[in-house]
Specification:
This protein has helices at about 10-20, 60-70, 95-105, 135-145, 150-155; strands spanning about 1-5, 5, 25-30, 35-40, 45, 50-55, 70-80, 85-95, 120-135, 160-165. By secondary structure, the chain is of the alpha+beta class.
Length: about 160
């Protein structure tokens, strides 16, 4: 597996592609607590600055935890596609009605009564550090590589690296 550390625009592009591909991640709050506080969250949006947005209930444990300690870790995993990313960042609770309207979809009615639900909030995560593993190239290389020794030696085993955001 080759290591490819990416910076700025390339890092943002890689992170966005992986997060949008996987969509649901695990949000870890109160990183100093044991056991860890972990909850699955569906990504609603990644904005142009690379901020990751979720919807959450005002009375949820993750909102309480973020209010107490804004440092969070996001873990996204797609074993079938061999894509993984870990994102460390700073989270905040957003109550802006325009942002809530932008993020809200009728599928969110499973957790909220509607867009006017008083418990509706958004969580914004500003990524600070990230590390990824992307092995899908290995699948494609194996699919198109014949049995010759020369071609086997050229198989790409995927890539991993830090994303400097």
């Amino acid at each position: 597996m080759s290591t490819q550390n990416l910076n700025h625009k390339q890092a943002l592009e890689k992170m966005t592609n992986l997060v949008e591909s996987i969509k649901t991640g695990m949000l870890i709050t109160c990183l100093s607590d044991r056991p860890l506080n972990v909850v699955p969250m569906t990504t609603k949006k990644i904005d142009a600055e690379g901020n990751i947005w979720f919807l959450s209930r005002l009375d949820s444990s993750q909102n309480r935890n973020i209010s107490r300690e804004p440092e969070v870790q996001l873990l996204y995993s797609s074993p079938d596609n061999k894509e993984f990313i870990s994102i460390y960042g700073m989270a905040s609770i957003n109550l802006n009605p325009e942002k809530l309207k932008e993020l809200y979809h009728t599928s969110d009615n499973a957790w909220f009564t509607d867009l006017d639900d008083p418990n509706l909030t958004a969580i914004k995560v500003i990524p600070k550090q990230s590390y990824y593993w992307d092995e899908k190239q290995n699948n494609y290389a194996n699919l198109f590589t014949s049995n010759s020794k020369l071609e086997k030696d050229k198989i790409r085993t995927g890539e991993k690296g830090k994303l400097q955001l």
